Amino acid sequence: MPAAALKPRPLPTQSTARRSVPLDSPYEPLSKTPLPAGRPREWYVTHNRRLKAMRLAIALLDSGVHLPVQARDETIRSTAELIGVHPPSATTCHMVRALMRYAR
């Protein structure tokens, strides 16, 4: 049996499919589900802090701040105000810079 016959075929894309492939536009966010119950309070605080840091890191990257050195606390807090998030603490700002550093 030839090796080409054993190779899996790639999934069709929008341009190669015989019928249209449904796309995700317009984008709708997933419905929120409640967090699991029974965890310590610190877990919920850390979880929400990570989500906030991720949102801020994405907003900073979109605005052109690509290096953690460029993301001072003032810059992060002004971005938070711009996207409608409560001002982050120093710990959250540190986490934003850490996310930017590891994304590289």
TrEMBL record:
This is Integrase. Residues 1-39 are annotated as: Disordered.
